[in-house]
Amino acid sequence: MKFYLMHLMPYLHLDPDYDQIHDSAWVTLPNSYYDPKKGAKLYNRYLDELEYGDQLGFDGVCVNEHHQTAYGLMPQPGVMAGALARRTKKVKIAILGRALPLLNNPVTVAEEFAMVDNITEGRFIAGFVRGIGSEYHSWSANPALSHDRFHEAHDLIVRAWTETGPFAFEGKHYQFEYVNLWPRPYQEPHPPIWIPSQGSSETIEWASHPDRRYTYLQTFTPVAMLAKYMQMYRDKAAEHGYEATEEQLGWSVPMYVAETDEAARREAKPHIEAFLNKFLRMPKEMLLPPGYLSLKSMMGVMKAKSAIGGKQTIDDVIDKGMFICGSPETVRQQLEEYRKQIGFGHLLSLLQFGTLPADLTRKNMELYAGEVMPYLRQSAAAAVEAAQ
């Protein structure tokens, strides 16, 4: 089992009363709310936290891509990955991930990722996503073309990484007379590819195909739905004639660890509720624009996301398993139970969320790394040994 430190890099200085005027922190929130002096300090604080994850013994650190939002200040995650590449020594660096359908030139991502892979000497994980619906509003992109553009961009990037150039690429959306990647990736045949998702059945089927067997990462979702999507991946793999391993399954979830259950809830409450009710808030038509999902996937994702509709409390998300919060013992027990029931090989912990300040983030990281991760590592290793 591997442990990763995930960061969203929110603009936590957002005016708490913004929602009296605006219906979302995404796309339409005026950037007059952003103070570059405060934002500059936040960027450096957040990079410090990810670098500290290297010292604390995490297996990897993760950044992602969002546009025109206070939810996450990483419209170009490669900038963050490049900064981390030279300042970390052991952790893998994951971009989870680039929104491929938004790209006008996917070869630039092949180049960018290959550079980070070289600088880190193979400590890089490539994440590819379609991007949530709001990104299509930010980018003025057609969501109905999302699937086609994703698959074509993916194919072009993988070919650029693995085929000797120059070669021509003639697709529906992308055409190149010369594809000839300099530099080539450090890892052979290319960096591992992870596919984060909200639970699209088409994405699960595509990622599990034997030609790919990509790691599927389920993001912020009730644990009952998590179990369903993990099992869906296993079932699809079985249909293709192979058994999916835990290495192909990952879960991303916010967590908070304090000395006692009571302290954890008290300290986390205002910050996780700001995350839920301020930063995540957006109209349904912004999250799921027409044409973005098939009807089947739309129904599944709407069911999963209905759990975070309306005003949410810390108790709501703890009860659904969407937020892990408590003493080290409580968090250990809950994560161990989920690991045994569901089975996943990658656990991505969001240890800064919403408005959580630097001191509490640092404490959360230290308690989780010092008193939760070692126990789960031993337990997972013992389970593997017993199964052999």
TrEMBL record:
Superkingdom, natural source: Bacteria
Domain Luciferase-like, first and last residues per copy: 43-340
GO molecular function: monooxygenase activity; oxidoreductase activity, acting on paired donors, with incorporation or reduction of molecular oxygen
Taxonomic lineage from the root: Bacteria, Pseudomonadati, Pseudomonadota, Alphaproteobacteria, Hyphomicrobiales
UniProt keyword annotations, A-Z: Monooxygenase, Oxidoreductase
InterPro entries (alphabetical): Bact_Lucif_Oxidored, Luciferase-like_dom, Luciferase-like_sf
Any one Gene Ontology cellular component term annotated for this protein: cytosol
TM region positions: none
Descriptive protein name: Alkanesulfonate monooxygenase SsuD/methylene tetrahydromethanopterin reductase-like flavin-dependent oxidoreductase (Luciferase family)
Species assigned in the record: Amorphus orientalis
Pfam families (alphabetical): Bac_luciferase
